[in-house]
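Cross-check.
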Amino acid sequence: MQNGPEETRLSPRVSFSGPLRCQVRGSGEISGTISEDLSLSGIRFISSKFIPAQTPVMLEISLFSQIVRPIAQIIWAAPFARQDRFHLGARFLEWDPKEKKNLSDFVNMRLRQQ
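Predicted model, tokenized:
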């Protein structure tokens, strides 16, 4: 018998509250925000703007002394109750191989600390 919903994520997530910059591809506007959790396959973050599912975005994620810049796609968006903010989930699509290795090292370090 299972307790709770079945896990469908591709990679384990780690809690990570850090600075993030997000730009919808093709838009000149860049918004600063905060991440909530992170994995090798995606990220959950907070946004003051609604971004619809399937929208491609360019991200800039600060991992302490390193910055990684994946291209991602918004997978889901959910509003905060009674606030003009949203939880957004994005899946990583394109990476610089060195930056992907940096993210992998960071996530694995955090997983060992849990």
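Residues 97-113 form the longest helix (17 residues). Confidence is low (pLDDT under 50) at residues 1-7. Passed to J.P. for a second look.
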